[in-house]
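Batch job 17 of 40 flagged for manual review because the log was empty.
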Amino acid sequence: MAQVGLKVLLLRATPDPDEVVALGARLCYAQADLDSLRERVETSDQRAYVERVMARGHLSVTEHASFTFAVEGVSRALLAQLTRHRIASFSVQSQRYVSMADGFDYVIPPSIEALGEDAAREFAHQMDTMHAWYIRWQEKLGGAGENANQDARFVLPNAAATRLVLTMNARELMHFFELRCCNRAQWEIRELAWRMLAECRKAAPALFGNAGPACLRGACPEGKNTCGRMEEVRRKHESL
């Protein structure tokens, strides 16, 4: 049993995603055949063209590029939020087939850590208590195994850490970043979103150059609920 931190890896991305998007966009407006379009895209820098496509809002072509991430050190509370983004594919460590008999890692909210060492120890003790409950129910239900695990897990907390692989296309990622990089997003999924955005910008700078919360591109859409820290957000984005 241990406190864990977030780790994000970009496992795979569509090769040359900016070129794939550029080819899709050019095909919509060109009489040229596929070989000619492909040669044109592969023999010249497509960044400026892709940026113009994005500025015009021709976003359907961005769906041709996809990105797959591995994530660990996140809570089951985050998982509940993440899977609301339905245009995505998820593979998640199972609490049914994976026994927590040897303990489970967990995430401590920064607000609790900020209360001091005593609060952090109290939180860790509560995790130990819930693990003891889990073990007790496992034993009563017949010992470690999927039939026992699937019901013993009901006493595990939202803080329990998990691992997952997720895949999104570029358009859905842009939507994800707009919502979840916002300061009004919950702290854990916001941290995940910024980490993912940094990886996407390395892999596809033209596609994700302006991706992020809506306040990067204009006024904050949150109205009276705005965080009031637009300039700070923009500086953070520039530093990626």
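Reviewer: the log was empty due to a logging misconfiguration, but the result itself is present. Strands lie at 7-13, 66-75, 89-92, 161-169. Unflagging and moving on to job 18.
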